[in-house]
Design brief:
By secondary structure, this protein is an alpha/beta fold. The protein has a single domain, classed as TIM Barrel (Alpha-Beta Barrel). The chain is 43% helix and 15% strand. The protein is built from 11 helices and 8 strands. The protein has an 8-stranded parallel beta barrel, surrounded by 6 helices. β1, α1 and β2 form a beta-alpha-beta unit. It is globular. The two termini are 14 Å apart. Bound molecules: 1,3-dihydroxyacetonephosphate (13P). The site of 1,3-dihydroxyacetonephosphate has 14 residues, from β8.
Length: 248
């Protein structure tokens, strides 16, 4: 049985004061949570998370990491630096990074390798644009994105992988994939993973992301291959985020 994971992706939002209220509110609301819960915050606030969340049920992580271990890479942050701040999760290959920072499937695969080797949990995002969906390319696009990662990691490490299906057309648009549309893609993704190892594929959590809100979370999370959510906008509001956790 896969334990559901609800992870907030704060993106480039927050400040010390608003974060303090958000973290305290979520932490306080988690006492009965049956699922795993985390927030992925801007890297400069990881120290704040470590100070506030250590020993609590709320995990924390980053939104990206360098593929390099150390050295002359101005502006980059390494996996070991994330570990210094107690990070457990790293979002990789988010569509915003693919679109605005030219991240390729190959780079995302390399980063995934690094994160797994360090013992952290990668949350690898895949998803098609509206144009790709409308031209019938959804399966080909998400399969290629996932294949790059599956090729890069050892079969034995499969269970450490978390995948997030985030249709680009549903991110920040208020247009959620229907549970059936999402389930179809999640099943495609799991079938791909099964080609690598049938047994371990059952342990891989596949999250849905894209306008997940309190009013649609329950239906989405009830689908057999939807193992949690990667939450953008709704993760910035204590009540909304906790309502989604409650659904999971
Ligand atoms: P929204 O929930 O704001 O649509 O964002 C989803 C997302 O991109 C999470 O990574």
């Amino acid at each position: 049985m896969r334990r559901k994971l609800v992870c907030g992706n704060w993106k480039m939002n927050g400040n010390l004061i608003s974060n303090a209220a958000l973290l305290a509110g979520v932490k306080a609301g988690l006492s009965h949570a049956k699922c795993e819960v985390a927030v992925c915050v801007p890297a400069v606030y990881l120290a704040q998370c470590q100070a506030v969340l250590s020993g609590s049920a709320l995990g924390w992580g980053a939104q990206d990491v360098s593929a390099h271990a150390s050295g002359a890479y101005t502006g980059e942050i390494s996996v070991s630096m994330l570990q210094d701040f107690g990070c457990q999760y790293v979002i990789l290959g988010h569509s915003e990074r693919r679109a605005y920072h030219d991240e390729t499937d190959a780079l995302v695969a390399l980063k995934t390798q690094r994160v797994i080797q360090a013992g952290l949990t990668p949350i690898v995002c895949v998803g098609e644009t509206l144009a790709e969906r409308e031209s019938g390319q959804t399966q080909a696009v998400v399969s290629a994105q996932l294949d790059a990662v599956l090729t890069a990691i050892d079969a034995a490490d499969l269970a450490k992988l978390v995948v997030a299906y985030e249709p680009v057309w549903a991110i920040g648009t208020g247009k959620t994939a229907t549970p059936e549309i999402a389930q179809d893609v999640h099943a495609i993704l799991r079938a791909k993973i099964m080609q690598k190892n049938v047994e371990l594929a059952q342990a891989v959590r596949i999250l849905y992301g894209g306008s997940m809100k309190p009013d649609n979370a329950r239906e989405l999370l009830a689908m057999p291959d939807i193992d949690g959510g990667l939450i953008g906008g709704a993760a910035l509001n204590v009540a909304d985020f906790l309502a989604i956790v409650q659904s999971a």
